[in-house]
Amino acid sequence: GEENGVPTYTFDIHLQGEKETVFFDV
């Protein structure tokens, strides 16, 4: 869900690995 303007795809990226975690951290 987009609670704080954060797309849902960011959640899947977090589960995949830390290589794409930058998107969630930024």
The 3D shape can be described as elongated
State the end-to-end distance: 17 Å
Category by helix and strand content: mainly alpha
Query: Domains counted in the coordinates: how many?
Result: 1
Tell me about the largest β-sheet.
none
Q: Determine the fraction of residues in helical runs and give it as a percent range.
A: 40-55%
| Proportion of residues in β-strands | under 5%
Number of helices: 2
Order of helices and strands: HH
Account of the 3D structure:
With 26 residues, the protein is mainly alpha-helical. The chain has one domain (1-26). It has helices at residues 9-16, 22-25. The model has no long low-confidence stretch (mean pLDDT 58).
Helix/strand layout:
Elements: H1 9-16, H2 22-25
Produce a short descriptive summary:
The protein is mostly helical and 26 residues long. The chain has helices spanning 9-16, 22-25.
Provide the descriptors you would attach to this structure in a database record:
26 residues; mainly alpha; 2 helices; 0% strand
